[in-house]
Every structure is written in C-alpha cells, then in structure tokens.
Design brief:
Largest sheet: none
Radius of gyration: 24 Å
Distance between the termini: 77 Å
Shape: extended
Low-confidence stretches: none
Length: 158
C-alpha cells in the first residue's frame, strides 16, 4: 500500500538555494542576455584600440621592469613571452565563442558548467583584478608626481 503511494524510483531533488536570486527581476543581471549583432556598433578599429589600451598601461611596464631587474633580462624576456603565449592561447576560444554567439564572459562561464554562482565568482575575480590594477596605476602616478614636483608621497596619493 505504501509502495503504491510513494514509488521507489522517484527521487526528490533538493531545491537550490539560489533560485530565488535568479527569479528576482530586481537582482537579475541583464548583461547576461543574448546581444543581437545589430546592438554591437563598435568597429574593428575601436575594438582593437580598446584591447591594446588594456595591455599597454603603466603597471605592465613597472612589473616587467621589476622582473627584469630581479631576474635578469633574458629570464624576464622568456618568462614574459611564455606568459603572453599562454594568455593568448587561452583567450582564443573565449574570444571566438564570444564573437560567434554574441555572448559575454559571464554567460560563457555559466554555460561552460560553472553555473550561476560560478559566473558570479568569476565576475568578482575580474572586478578584483581591475581594482588591483587601478591601485597599481595610482601608486605609479603618485610616485611620478612626487619625483616631478617634490611633493611628499602621502600628498601625491591624494
């Protein structure tokens, strides 16, 4: 009698805790939506300029110079080239699928199996890198201001 009411082959799945976050339209991240080709108005030149601007900032020069001074030019050159190759090869599939299917990195990470929370964590990692590099840029500019004007370093940070 009990087996007729509750079949043995039915397994109750636990309800996910973050479903309420996804269903809330106030918290929904609309940047994760599909972007039609007509919405993308950047030319190839504008895209290349934005990409080049992201890799040619002062912190790269400072970090590269620090590596060269610490480990020598030859070691720094090969290490930086190897890192650039790894980053480039990792970025090829990301760039390909983002451009081909008009989706952003958050949606790619969600679709790649990281899920909703995983894509949120990767966004948090990207944001933290951005803040770190802004801080590096600010410290480099403050030191340059101190060297050029003679201001004390704490005043240059303001």
């Amino acid at each position: 009698m009990i087996e007729e009411q509750f079949p043995l082959d039915v397994v109750a799945r636990p309800k996910r805790k973050f479903n309420n976050l996804v269903n809330n339209p106030i918290l929904e991240d609309y940047s994760l939506r599909y972007a039609p080709r007509s919405f993308r108005k950047w030319s190839a030149y504008a895209t290349a300029t934005a990409a080049l601007g992201g890799i040619a900032y002062l912190a790269d020069y400072a970090i590269g110079g620090s590596i060269a001074v610490t480990y020598g030019f030859n070691s720094a050159l090969w290490a930086i080239l190897l890192a650039a190759i790894v980053i480039f090869l990792t970025g090829i599939p990301i760039a390909y699928y983002s451009a081909r299917y008009n989706i952003d990195m958050d949606l790619l990470t969600r679709g790649a199996g990281f899920g909703y929370l995983g894509s949120t964590i990767t966004s948090l990692i990207y944001a933290s890198f951005t803040f770190i590099f802004f801080a590096l840029e600010g410290s480099i500019m403050a030191q340059a201001l101190t060297l050029s004007t003679g201001l004390p370093l704490p005043a240059s940070y303001l």
